[in-house]
Amino acid sequence: MVSLPSMVTSPPSLTAPELELRKQVRAFLAETLPWGTFEPGLGMGAEVNPKFSAALAERGWIGMAVPARYGGHDATAVDRFVVVEELLRWGAPVGHHWVADRQIAQVLVRYGTEEQKQWLLPRICRGELCFCIGMSEPDAGSDLASVRTRGVHDGDGWRVSGVKVWTSNAMRADFMIALCRTGDGERHAGLSRFLIDMHSPGVTVKPIPFLNGSTDHFAEVVLDGVLVSDEMVIGEIGQGWAQNADELAFERSGPDRWISTFLLVQEFIRERPDLAASPDGSRLIGELAAQYWVLRRLSLAVARAIDAGGTPAAEAALIKEMGTRFEQDVVSALRELLDRELVCGLEPAPSLFERLLRRAALDAPSFTIRGGTTEVLRSVAAKGLS
Amino acid sequence: MSDSELFDVAVKLFAEHSRWQDVGDADATGWPDNLWKALQQTGFSDVPVPEELGGAGGSVADAVQLLRAAGAHAAPVPLAEAGLVGGWLLASAGLALPEGVRTVLSPAATLRLDGDRLFGTAPAVAWGHRAEHVIGLVDGVVVLAPGPATQSGGPAVSRGVNLADEPRDTVVFDGAPVTARADAPDGVTEETLWERTALGRAALMAGAISAVAAMTLRYSGEREQFGRPIGRFQAVQAHLVTIHQQATVVASAVDGAVEAVELGRGGFEIACAKMLADRAARLVTAAAHQTHGAIGMTKEYPLHYLTRRLWAWRDEAGGHRRWADRLGSALVASGPDALYPAIQSGSEVVQ
């Protein structure tokens, strides 16, 4: 009558080659991006730096799991976990290649045509390409299957029209992977995914200022009769929804879903050692460490499950739901411990901890929204319980 | 036998001898005789003590699997005390297992050894009044002494119970001679005794939480309101998700602690596991009771056999504050740049 939780909870610890890989990444970061010489970011919301992406790619650490014949390294999901974990906890500027590396490469490997693979995968693995994801629309957010952007077959291609919103990095992306309605049949079966060249005629990108005033992240993308050739259909027409669901196991379970505010904790200990060593401070550090430790274990377990051939999408939803709430809890717990107004002078520039804290305080609500809201994730996870 | 096979065998044993009816009876009588006999006959009470010291062999991982199964069935017996904690303590000092029911004196006890004579008070001794033998660590010496249930001349005992009506008795030693004593080896200290005790509680809690998860999921599929099973409502699904998340967290944490202990470490991981189990106990019991509604508050419905134990076990073997303070102090002392390596490698980096 009783069973252990169905999810694989126990990740065999990292192997010697995996630990060696971690050492190499640490050495690379210490050399290429010494601490104190750059502005560390909050997880995947870090800076965009194509040069850094190119240097990383040169080491073979972008698109690692892509087969070697397409420019990758036949590496595992765990290898990627090892690399990404080090990058994120360093606050490295991963913005340029992030989406391409996290999910587009896998989508193309799984569903892309031979031509698409030969054309795009080597460029992804060289860190050249920046992708954006065209999912949400003005009237389709959590209810993604109600997208209205439409692709109509026209000669030897498709005309795509509609509006995508909340599209991260659209202003600098080379391609969008866009979920569109191509059939009138059943809700889910009528959806397909296209690769859209962001430089095509008919594509207009309008920045949407973020609440902190930043205009270099969020955008609305208007697609006005954009011509997309048949070669740019990903997989098959009508397969869009299923592809999307598969992709979520990759998108939702990684360290980026629980590590975003880690640097706050680290820099708090550095800048406020007395408060950190106080009874309340050290208790909090102990509590947070326990959460980081177990979220990391679960996240690694999903990577191991992916390597074993699984698509643990419900498990990934459980982790993202917990991990992103935890990222927010870190911010509020530190603020409660500090117990002061977040006011700082403009000159001299505030300290790193202060900068991270101010950024996190304003960004935090987005953690439980982007990539599937907490509420949607609960529904996905609940369907997986039985 | 693999860990999962052992777990399955243990679950069968508890399903037969630790039914809710048996647990309820033991609340009243203080002792489930058939269950204890079954645990002795299978040797489960003597895991992980080596066979040459009178045990049943097995690893820490085996002992933890047995405790998970025990926790899932609210087994009202001192299984952790007999094996993982007390058995380990005796074996570490090369002392053989005695015949009969045994339990452990908590590291919080104030005891003193004068030659072979034991003095002092041990509070909250699990099933103390039933114990023919008690095991303790006194000033670096592992001690085996007659318990209150020994035939004659045992220490005085006053009965107590925890929130789940599990016996937690106070035992007073007035200088009676110990049965055996031996110096504890390096690496067996008051702190490692705390850790073992906490690992045992975390394992029981993992089992109890997994059982609460199964019970609540089943109930939410059976109970109908507004014309459909309550589990179809999003608000209720949120409770189910919380419960399963926390069951997963604790299962993974206990696995991680066992992995570290088997490598001869474990301070960091056990602290995490106990903290996480305590937090999970709070979240899971609240969500499970909310899902069940009034029926879950009755004596008749068995949820309370599990939730009352979780409420009690949260604070046993050191509550979340003890472990958070300890771990946090060690991490802060190691400095900011050791924090992430510690999260990755646990007690390999910070003890």
Task: Record keyword descriptors for this entry.
A: 386 residues; Butyryl-Coa Dehydrogenase, subunit A, domain 1; Butyryl-CoA Dehydrogenase, subunit A, domain 2; 3 domains; four-stranded antiparallel sheet; 12 helices; 7 strands; B: 351 residues; alpha+beta; Butyryl-CoA Dehydrogenase, subunit A, domain 3; 2 domains; four-stranded mixed sheet; 11 helices; 10 strands; globular
| Number of helices, where a helix is a run of at least 4 consecutive DSSP H or I residues of chain B | 11
Number of domains of chain A: 3
Q: pLDDT average of chain B, as an integer? A: 96
Distance between the termini of chain A: 13 Å
| Gyration radius of chain A, rounded | 21 Å
CATH homologous superfamily placement of the largest domain in chain A: Butyryl-CoA Dehydrogenase, subunit A, domain 3
Structural class of chain B: alpha+beta
Total E-strand runs of chain A: 7
Query: What is the CATH T-level topology of the largest domain in chain A?
Result: Butyryl-CoA Dehydrogenase, subunit A, domain 3
In this structure, how is the largest beta sheet of chain A organized? 4 strands, antiparallel
Write the layout of secondary structure elements.
The complex is a heterodimer of chains A (about 375) and B (about 350).
Chain A: H1 16-32, H2 50-58, H3 77-89, H4 98-111, H5 114-125, E1 131-134, E2 150-154, E3 157-164, E4 175-181, E5 191-197, E6 203-207, E7 219-229, H6 240-252, H7 262-271, H8 273-277, H9 279-307, H10 313-338, H11 352-367, H12 374-383
Parallel strand pairs in A: 1-4
Antiparallel strand pairs in A: 2-3, 3-7, 4-5, 6-7
Helix pairs in contact in A: 1-3, 4-5, 4-6, 6-10, 7-10, 7-11, 9-10, 10-11, 10-12
Chain B: H1 3-17, H2 20-29, H3 33-41, H4 60-72, H5 79-92, E1 102-104, E2 110-114, E3 117-126, E4 133-138, E5 141-146, E6 156-158, E7 168-177, E8 180-183, H6 190-222, E9 224-225, E10 228-229, H7 234-262, H8 267-292, H9 303-315, H10 320-334, H11 339-345
Parallel strand pairs in B: 1-4
Antiparallel strand pairs in B: 2-3, 3-7, 4-5, 5-8, 6-7, 9-10
Helix pairs in contact in B: 1-4, 4-5, 4-6, 5-6, 6-7, 6-8, 6-9, 7-8, 8-9, 8-10
